[in-house]
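Below is a filled-in request sheet from our internal design queue. Each sheet records the structural input a requester submitted and the sequence that came back. We keep these sheets so that new team members can see what a complete request looks like end to end.

REQUESTER: design group, bay 2
PRIORITY: normal
MODE: inverse folding
CHAIN LENGTH: 493
BACKBONE (tokenized):
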């Protein structure tokens, strides 16, 4: 199978799922932040989601991806008789952990609200316990489908959640339930998606395999052992991505947490292509390694890096340039303080794109331990920098801490991938230099017309101009192969 075939296989459904999620999140962001909730209410909503994100560590402990790894390993073995045992071990452990974590959050919600100095969080955290249970099961089914290399099924689950979230979150707020109602909408959407995932898993996969009468010796131990480094990685990742919002809310107030959340969400909208590529291609690295095809796996990873650099370095440059006055035009003057956050996070966009096509691949290559060590170190550094930078700089300080520490983490992951696969660094460096030159040319064109931006229409026009310049320069430099781009687009649309 060619690299184009490998990239396009499953990308159609994954792009659709991520695209729907991006549009749904954008709609919620604008509707909730600009029209339905105050900055304080919006900050409390996402402060709660961040706290739930930390609590979810205890509802998973790495067992989701560990189970998916062994699903991927056993699904093609003879008749796949051990798959039933793998799934039973994973689901039983997941159910027990979810119950304990949700009850812990429900009982300890009042104490958490007092610790962060936000007593208004109490009703949010009651609903948050339900959200923890629902989203934990939804994510469990999604990652299992990835292990089966059936990303189209994971896309069904993701699309269900994304569409239902918009309907129910906005609906409950319009009924007068405020920020708590928005969170309740998240609960209903995640629960519906989890139900869809359970039904699909059972009817389309589980019943297709005849279970072995006896479980393979040591299977439970291997699943649990592999979950340990994944737990460490997930814990560090959660601290890195969630604790910063909690610290902003605690040290600078819920409104600042709202500004920070808006900044992070705007930068996150751009990660759909990279996330889709990483989610789809990552299991293939493990398959190629098992077949001894290290060169082939390396070429796949190099192609992934080339694609994301070509897309994301110019995108980050454009985001930096249009953030002011883009943020106030879209969200209103109340969110002007989020502009600097978005500009700082534009650098994070590039790091995140590289990370998304690297980290899950390391898990499937069996290098989760090294990734966990790197993530733990940088997460600790992120907390320290947040504590130092938030008091003087507020939400922008948290953004600076995130960019600095995440950059070191991504560099470490790329190095680990280099030790695993024979990468051609000379070619990658030349590609990166060409991309920077294209981005500089695009930036010059956009900067010349930015002073004329005064409305949404003119902002959209400038963005369109930037895209046109990027396409022209990419083709002229040879970075963008029109025929290859047409092939990929035809297979994912």
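RETURNED SEQUENCE:
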């Amino acid at each position: 199978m060619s690299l184009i075939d490998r990239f396009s296989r499953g990308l159609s459904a994954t792009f659709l799922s991520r695209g729907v999620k991006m549009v749904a999140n954008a709609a919620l962001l604008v509707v909730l932040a600009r029209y339905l909730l105050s900055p304080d209410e919006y900050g409390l909503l996402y402060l709660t989601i961040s706290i739930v994100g930390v609590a979810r560590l205890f509802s998973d402990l790495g067992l989701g991806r560990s189970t998916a790894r062994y699903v991927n390993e056993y699904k093609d073995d003879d008749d796949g008789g051990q798959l039933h045992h793998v799934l039973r071990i994973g689901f039983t452990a997941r159910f027990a952990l979810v119950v304990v974590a949700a009850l812990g959050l429900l009982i300890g919600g009042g104490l958490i609200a007092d610790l962060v100095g936000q007593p208004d969080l109490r009703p949010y955290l009651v609903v948050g316990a339900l959200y923890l249970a629902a989203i934990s099961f939804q994510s469990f089914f999604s990652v299992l489908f990835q292990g089966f290399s059936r990303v189209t099924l994971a896309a069904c689950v993701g699309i269900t959640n994304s569409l239902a979230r918009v309907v129910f979150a906005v609906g409950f707020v319009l009924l007068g339930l405020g920020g708590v109602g928005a969170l309740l909408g998240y609960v209903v959407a995640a629960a519906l998606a989890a139900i869809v995932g359970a039904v699909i898993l059972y009817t389309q996969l589980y019943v297709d395999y005849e279970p072995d009468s006896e479980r393979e010796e040591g299977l439970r131990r291997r699943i649990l052992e592999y979950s340990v480094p994944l737990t460490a990685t997930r814990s560090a990742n959660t601290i890195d991505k969630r604790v910063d919002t909690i610290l902003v809310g605690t040290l600078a107030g819920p409104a600042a947490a709202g500004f920070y959340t808006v900044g992070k969400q705007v930068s996150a909208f751009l990660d759909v292509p990279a996330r889709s590529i990483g989610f789809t291609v990552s299991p293939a690295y493990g398959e190629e390694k098992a077949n001894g095809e290290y060169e082939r796996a390396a070429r796949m990873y190099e192609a992934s890096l080339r694609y994301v650099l070509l897309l994301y370095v110019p995108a980050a440059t454009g985001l930096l340039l249009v953030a002011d006055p883009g943020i106030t035009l879209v969200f209103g003057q109340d969110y002007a303080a989020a502009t600097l956050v978005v500009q700082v996070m534009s650098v994070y966009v590039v790091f995140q794109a590289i990370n998304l096509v690297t980290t899950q691949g390391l898990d499937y290559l069996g290098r989760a331990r090294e990734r966990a060590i790197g993530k733990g170190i940088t997460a600790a550094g992120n907390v320290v920098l947040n504590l130092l930078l938030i008091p003087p700089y507020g939400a922008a300080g948290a953004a600076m801490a995130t960019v600095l520490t995440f950059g070191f983490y991504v560099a470490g992951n790329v190095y680990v991938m280099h030790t695993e696969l024979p990468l051609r660094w000379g070619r990658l460096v030349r590609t990166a230099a060409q991309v920077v030159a294209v981005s500089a040319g695009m930036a010059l064109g956009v900067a010349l017309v930015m002073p004329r931006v005064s409305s949404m229409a003119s902002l959209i026009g400038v963005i369109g101009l930037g895209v046109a310049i990027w396409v022209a320069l990419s083709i002229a430099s040879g970075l963008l192969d029109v025929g290859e781009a047409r092939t990929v687009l035809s297979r994912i649309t």
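SHEET NOTES:
- DSSP finds 19 helices and no strands in the chain.
- The radius of gyration is 22 Å.
FILED BY: M.R.
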